[in-house]
Write a structure and sequence with these properties.
Layout (H helix, E strand, L loop, with lengths): L13 E3 L4 E3 L2 E9 L2 E3 L2 E9 L4 E3 L2 E3 L1 E4 L2 E3 L2 E3 L2 E4 L4 E3 L2 E3 L1 E4 L4 E3 L2 E3 L2 H17 L1
Parallel strand pairs: 1-3, 2-4, 3-5, 4-6, 5-7, 5-8, 6-9, 7-10, 8-11, 9-12, 10-13, 11-14, 12-15, 13-16
């Protein structure tokens, strides 16, 4: 359940610098590195890196995530989420794999997704549909 498998973040497609402040919903594909401030949601079809200077007040949805800054909101990762030693996360998470480095701050609940749980939920939905 908890491991040290590294997330591969080969190339960064989008970079939001530390002197940038944004409001609203951001959607993108690929890998985004966020070192600025955002009040709003971050919806990424790819990977998210929140740098040490990064501050997000909103929800994040991505494939993989690395948080080194501050997030106030919920995070849903299809695969892996890592909180580095400088991270502060105040919100609930839903992930397949969760890594927390020493000294990271996490206040919230964690729901671990597994293939088995997903298959069970799909089977239950199909059974309900077939009964109707």
């Amino acid at each position: 359940m908890f491991g040290k498998k590294e997330i591969k973040m080969d190339k960064i497609d989008t970079l939001i610098g530390r002197n940038t402040k944004l409001e609203g919903k951001i959607t993108a594909n690929g890998t985004i590195r966020f070192d600025g401030e955002l009040v709003g949601d971050l919806i990424i079809e790819g990977n998210v890196i929140i740098g040490e200077e990064g501050k997000i007040k909103g929800n994040i949805k991505c494939n993989n995530g690395i948080v080194s800054g501050r997030v106030e909101g919920n995070i849903i990762c299809k695969e892996q989420l890592r909180l580095t030693n400088t991270a502060s996360l105040f919100g609930d998470i839903e992930v397949k794999s969760f890594i927390v480095d020493e000294n990271a701050v996490f206040e919230g609940s964690c729901k671990m997704k597994t293939e088995t749980n997903t298959q069970k939920n799909n089977t239950k939905k199909e059974e309900k549909t077939n009964r109707s």
